[in-house]
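User: For my dataset I need records formatted as: sequence, then structure tokens, nothing else. Please produce one.
Assistant:
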Amino acid sequence: MEFSYKEGYSLKKWKYVSIAVVIIAFISANLYLLFKEDSKAERIAYINEWRVVKKGDITKTFDTKGVTKTEQEYYVYYDENRGALSSLLVQEGDTVSEGTALFTYGTLHLDDERAELESNIMQLENEIASIENQLSELKGIVVSMPSNSVSTDSAEVNVEVNVDVSPIAENDVEIAIVETEAELRKLEAKLLNYEEQLARLDGKQNDLTVRSAFEGQVIAVKANSANPIVTIASPVLEVKGVLTEKQMKKIAEEQTVTMYSSLHKKTYTGTVKSINAYPQEAVSVDEETTYSFIVQFDELNEELLVGTKVDMTVVVGEVMDVPVVSSESTFKSGKKTNVYQLSSKGTVETKTISKGLSFEGIYEVKEGLETGDIIVKDPSSVNVVGAGYITPMKKTTIQKQALKQMSKRQIAKYTLLGLL
């Protein structure tokens, strides 16, 4: 069978015409669907990018600077009504504890009184010792004196009379013992009185010694009796930070603070202890007004010195494990914050959300969305709301196994949906 050139040319021409007809028909069909009034095609939104709502953490902070200082300064005052200053017992740099003697008031008259009492006590003790020796001798005389003895016998009675050879009669010795004991008791009572006076004098002198009621380090001593005469710094450190007017609106007591010391290359934690609402310096129209706040350390840090500079980060808000969205996925409608949600029905829906904590473009979603919901990344790309949507095909999501499980009819259906 012969095939002429003319027939071959006709066949090719028919093929080209067929392809052109198909292309024209495809374009015409899409143009018709696009421009036809109430056409479903014009209500199809093309969603290029979307996001799945996930849980996350939001920590809202601001940064400032601070310096370490002693937590408390204790002042000890001199009272001129108690007497002249006698001596200072501490100097700057000394470490003191509760009960450490700091200074004393003048005690010259008390010293003289003490010397007199101690002299009287010593004299009495000597007299008492002498009398005790005398009393012991007198009692020894009584023991050594012979006494009359009478012996009886059934046959005869012998009476023996001892001759008194002592220069002092026995009766006189007993009287002397009684008198000596009485004198001894008088001296002992007098000695007790002197000792009680000395004890009271010790109490007076102790009252003239001023002792520390605090633990810490002496940072100032004034030898000229000017007040405060002694200043003691607490061993506990805290941090004084600086705040701007905007930061004053955010900060609150008990907020967490992290502090970094470049000197020690270490980070410390603490909490806001107090906030001073009064400006640090005289206010000026030309200069920014600053305020101060105090942070207490969570743990005692002995390595830090007073005056150490630190960089501070104050946590003004924090939420953990909550649904979050990016601010670029939201848009405003009046006072409401909205997102475009890709519903499970295959339509683009406007969803109003209730925002919680926000920081650096990330919002906490308190109401309106749940974890796993799908939203449009860029709301400005949506020009049709309430209708269906299409998304670009992602090759990574097409699985060969899934294709094998689809029927030819399903493949044809989804292919036509993609084309139209």
